[in-house]
Amino acid sequence: MLHQSRIGVAITGCGSAAPVATLDNEGLSQVVETSDEWIRTRTGIQQRRLATPNESLKTIAAEAAHHALEMAGVAPADVDLIILATSTPDDLFGTASQIQAELGAVKAAAFDLTAACSGFVFGLVTAAQFIQTGTYRTVVLIGGDVLSRWTDWSDRRTCVLFGDGAGAVVMQADPEQNALLGFELCSDGSQNECLTLAFQPQSLELIEDITIGQGTFQPIAMNGQEVYRFAIKRVPEVIEKSLFRASLSVEQIDWLLLHQANQRILDAVAQRLGIPSHKVISNMAKYGNTSAASIPIALDEVVREGKVKPGDVIAASGFGAGLTWGAAIFRWGKS
Ligand code: UT7
Question: Which uninterrupted H or E stretch holds 299?
């Protein structure tokens, strides 16, 4: 039952896209001193998709959004809002408006949202607020990242992990149901240095007494063990809290859909929550860690395979740089 003053949300379409170029672990071992065996056993990753200089976040994200709109049966001209969750924009002023133009979503407002690998979950909750308040009826949420641009390809501790791609969902006002059943979003900036893609200023004196900082962003740096420990502690907590908000038990979850960072993290979280492995969605073997894109790409695959069916309850959780983490319990499909 919906609260009288609130409009419900339905998640009615999904789509995904990834660059064609595929680098497998053998190929990567020509770049850094690593092995297929190390990467598979420590992470579960077998290959990743990488964008060429001719591909952009805009093109990949727009393709994902296009597929999601087609599935939902929504015309671009009927979209009210586009949210692009990304940490790797084509333009620091924002890439969402370029996607809006590419799609022909002429009446849509569009903005970027940055919460690293938690971006899709933060975006899902943000999009739902606009719909539930009655402000907008149709929102396209995209999670997309081109991490290869900012990967340190000489650092074997990080470069084996990441890949490029985008996934999208269409969210629509629904008088019958509210598909966002419960959520929790968290941040802890005191641990920011565990995972960074940070701006490094260099002093530039403009005139006497006025010196500014100019520079560029430094490649991704990560304390993998710290982030691992953080993930396996915080993710089960935040899912349990979201389930409590949704008045659901762990047994009522049909699918566990975590940010695809490491198969060992997926296994550890599922074990802590007592969720059997057949309910755990995993496709990181094919894509690696695509940051904000990983949850919607995996969702799109299982929906199109027919594994996830309308009405299924999905517990999704993103976690990563910031540090940020969050969970959203939602029901897939039209009512
Ligand atoms: O999306 C944001 C969220 N990010 C994450 O969730 C990442 C969380 N962290 C992890 O997934 C894991 O910590 C990693 C996969 C990054 C690393 O796995 P680990 O089991 O924590 O390995 P480690 O860093 O403890 O390294 C173990 C050994 C080291 O050698 P020594 O010191 O034991 O001799 C590393 O030098 O493995 C070595 N190593 C490698 N060897 C071959 C590290 N990277 C590699 C590599 N190939 N690519």
Answer: helix 294-304
